[in-house]
């Protein structure tokens, strides 16, 4: 019987020692995690967002032409000079729509731009991207005859966000 007691005692001692070591290890780790302090310095700086620009694409041929009573595509060139991507979220009209200089008799263009919202077009870092806006321009039947064959400048503003 004394052998049995000794075996049980050794097992209990081994088990208690293991539990004690685990408890000390967890408590020591928790103590170090929550109590550890020390002197030091840190610094951070913020960058500044460089302007993302939009321009008409010279010589662009949209997939659909603008005709009186119909709609046509608008093509933009968006340039992101930043070192990180931005997301184009909207394009809105921002001024008077005019015909090219070769069509001086296009006095009433009848052209309107439909703002584009809810967009999610990623413009990669340090890149330029063509953005096609299908059916974003429309032309009323009130347009003057001198507008036939004209190319229209549609001033727009864009909204971008990081990412």
Key words describing this protein structure:
163 residues, alpha+beta, Immunoglobulin-like, 2 domains, four-stranded antiparallel sheet, three-stranded antiparallel sheet, 1 helix
Question: What would you say this structure looks like, in words?
Answer:
- The chain is built from one helix and nine strands, in the order αβββββββββ.
- By secondary structure, it is an alpha+beta fold.
- The protein folds into two domains: 1-35; 53-162, Sandwich (Immunoglobulin-like).
- It is elongated, with a radius of gyration of 34 Å.
CATH topology-level fold name of the largest domain? Immunoglobulin-like
- Counted by DSSP, the helix tally is 1
Q: How large a portion of the residues is in β-strands, by DSSP E?
A: 25-35%
Given as residue ranges, the uncertain stretches (5+ residues, pLDDT < 50) are 1-37
- Quaternary structure classification: single chain
Cα-atom radius of gyration:
34 Å
Structural class: alpha+beta
Q: What number is the mean pLDDT? A: 78
Report the helical percentage.
10-25%
Based on the structure given, which CATH architecture of the largest domain is correct? Sandwich
Q: CATH class of the largest domain, anyone?
A: Mainly Beta
User: Could you give the order of strands across the largest sheet?
Assistant: 1-2-7-5
Tell me the distance between the termini: 75 Å
| Main pleated sheet | 4 strands, antiparallel
Order of helices and strands: HEEEEEEEEE
Cα shape? elongated
Number of domains: 2
Number of β-strand runs? 9
